[in-house]
Amino acid sequence: MTVPASVPGIGPLTTVFVYGTLMPGERNAGVAARGGTFRAQPATLHGYQLLHLTPEAYPAVIPGSPQDFVLGHALTYAPADWHAALPFLDALEGTEETPPLYTRERVELELQGGQTLPAWVYLYARADRLKQPGADAIASGDWREAPDRMRPRPSDR
Question: Which of 11, 69, 143, 144 would be 59's cystine partner, CB 3.0–4.6 Å?
Answer without folding.
Answer: 143
